[in-house]
Automatic annotation (TrEMBL):
The organism of origin for this protein: Alkalicaulis satelles
Gene3D superfamilies with a match to the protein in the record: Phage tail collar domain
Domain of life per record: Bacteria
Domain Phage tail collar: 38-92
Protein name in the entry: Phage tail protein
């Protein structure tokens, strides 16, 4: 009787494992596996699980987190003697360290980029502003909304550009635009980035 019960129990376990595999579920042993100490993972919920901390640049004590400090050093902040910092991914994207083709080199722990930029004249593409005039005779004493006219009518009033050209007062063609910053952020989705504060110490490659 006991043997039959054990066989039935094993069959039930096998069936449950198959059902979990078919449903795409991880086994309890796999889902509870220890992370690597210091690894960063994103979560869709609004908190970090037990044993994890937000990747928000917190300053930590070297003496309290010796193992984690041996991996991070002062790469992300702190004085590197008594304190060090966790990576700060609050409102930031992560980028791969190194140098991609045609890109500037990026060091691990380096923060770069900005959310918006105000263009200067030197950054604007080369372009021209047209100045229009009329070959017709003037017909209004009010300059608002009007155009330069030719007076007397049909007279020779214009010449080819030459060395004797002088600039008009800047108020004749006033500047346009407000100088408002241009947003630079790509489309993104905010999630909770968390650091494993405990786990397996990662072995370095040979």
């Amino acid at each position: 009787m006991e043997i039959k019960i054990m066989k039935s129990f094993k069959i039930l376990l096998a069936a449950a494992g198959s059902a979990a595999a078919m449903a795409g579920l991880a086994s309890p042993a796999h889902s509870q596996a220890d992370p690597y100490l210091g690894q960063i993972t994103s979560y869709a919920f609004d908190f970090c699980p037990q044993g994890w901390a937000p990747a928000a640049g917190q300053i930590l004590s070297v003496s309290q987190y010796t193992a984690l400090f041996s991996l991070y050093g002062a790469t992300y902040g702190g004085d590197g003697v008594t304190t060090f910092a966790l990576p700060n991914l609050s409102g930031r994207h992560a980028a791969g360290a190194g140098q991609g083709p045609g890109l500037d080199p990026v060091m691990r722990g380096q923060s770069f980029g900005q959310t918006s930029v105000s263009l200067t004249i030197d950054q604007m593409p080369a372009h021209n502003h047209s100045f229009h005039a009329s070959s017709q005779a003037p017909d209004s004493p009010d300059p608002e909304g009007g155009s330069y006219a030719t007076y007397p009518p049909q007279s020779v009033a214009y010449a080819e550009a030459g060395l004797s050209d002088v600039a008009l007062n800047p108020a004749v063609i006033p500047p346009a635009g407000t100088g408002a910053p241009i947003p630079l952020r790509q489309p993104y989705l905010a999630m909770s980035w968390c650091v494993a504060m405990q786990g397996l110490y990662p072995s370095r490659p040979d």
